[in-house]
Amino acid sequence: MKFFCVIGDPISHSKSPRIHNNAIKHLGLNGIYSRFHLKDKDKLKESLFKLKLNGANITLPFKEEAVKIADFKDELTLQIGSANTLILKNRKIHAYNTDSPGFLKAIEEFKNIKKALILGAGGTTRAIAYALKQRNIHCTIANRSERNFSHFKDFKCTLYEDLKDFEFDIIINSTSAGLNDDNLPCNVDLLKKIKTKYAFEVIYGKKTPFIKFCEENNIKYKDGLSMLLWQGVFAFELFFELENKQKQIQKAMLEALNLS
Question: Residue 141, SS3?
Answer without folding.
Answer: strand
